[in-house]
Specification:
Helices cover 74% and strands 0% of the residues. It is an all-alpha fold and 72 residues long.
């Protein structure tokens, strides 16, 4: 079985964020997603910069926008 593609990892990250928001609320989910973003973005061009942006996010929408911008 091949490893997941970057787009599959991004889709999974977005779903992970949605589930965390449902179970923990947006504020906690956004804070916790910052650490998970490192794995989901590993190997994607510009990953360090992407993580910088995600670490400054304050809302689910901001993280989703950044992750969706990577699809492509």
């Amino acid at each position: 079985m091949p490893p997941p593609t970057p787009e599959e990892r991004i889709n999974t990250a977005i779903r992970h964020l949605e589930l965390m928001v449902e179970s923990k609320g947006e504020q906690i989910a956004v804070f916790e997603m910052r650490k998970h973003a490192a794995w989901y973005t590993k190997g994607i061009r510009g990953a360090a910069r992407i993580r910088e942006f995600i670490n400054k996010c304050c809302s689910k929408k901001e993280i989703e926008d950044i992750l969706n911008s990577l699809k492509g």
